[in-house]
Amino acid sequence: MDCIVNRTSEHTDGPPLPPPAQAPERSSASDLVRTALRKDSHLDFRQITEICERLETEPHEMSETISVLTTALQDEDTPLRAKLQALTILNEATYNAKVVAACREAVGLQSVLASLRDVNNKEPGDLTAENVRMLANELDRVCFVGPVTGKPSSPNRAANAHLERLEKARQKAQEMLEISQQKAARTLEKTATSMSSAIRKAERTLDRTADLVMQEAERTLSNMVIDGHSIEAPDHNQVQQQRQLKQ
What we know:
The protein has helices at residues 2-12, 29-36, 45-57, 62-74, 80-93, 97-105, 109-116, 128-144, 157-222, 236-246; strands spanning 225-226, 229-230. By secondary structure, it is mainly alpha-helical.
């Protein structure tokens, strides 16, 4: 018993345990937007969903996030592709009525949307400018015309993300099926070639064996004598020709 007490005492008197590791802080909505608008970034549905969900759970970040997007749209050095990404983020975020209210209060947003509604194509056939004009017109209508309300509810973003994952899984399964079919076809082709080669080899072996048997029979008959008379052995070449004719 004394031994147990002493061990317990030693454990209690030991150095304190380090505090549990804290989970890393999630990026703010404005930081997510800055990352999405970088030159080397390719905006996708996952990034847009993350930004919109962050604005819903952290509404106090809306003003700064809208300000970052507005600044990107106003900056003449911002590539048109990056402005299209900023408009795409805003367009998805305005399903939230609070985001619409923040956009209406954002300094300079309405005027920059008006200028983007008239942006021209830099290259023939380039759809970037056309998409910029379309989204700028839509955002101007939603944010600055009529009452402050969110856009009519679209299919749930989580459901869309799930459908996107299912589609990717379907495409992957299709690719795997095509690869398996190609491998199976190659395997069957190799098997058929091997079988054909084995059959031809067996036929050649049978022919050689038959020739050897006939030659041995000729030698045996040539040495046989019945009732004092020798037996004339059949000509091997004639026998072989007769076999070929029968075949």
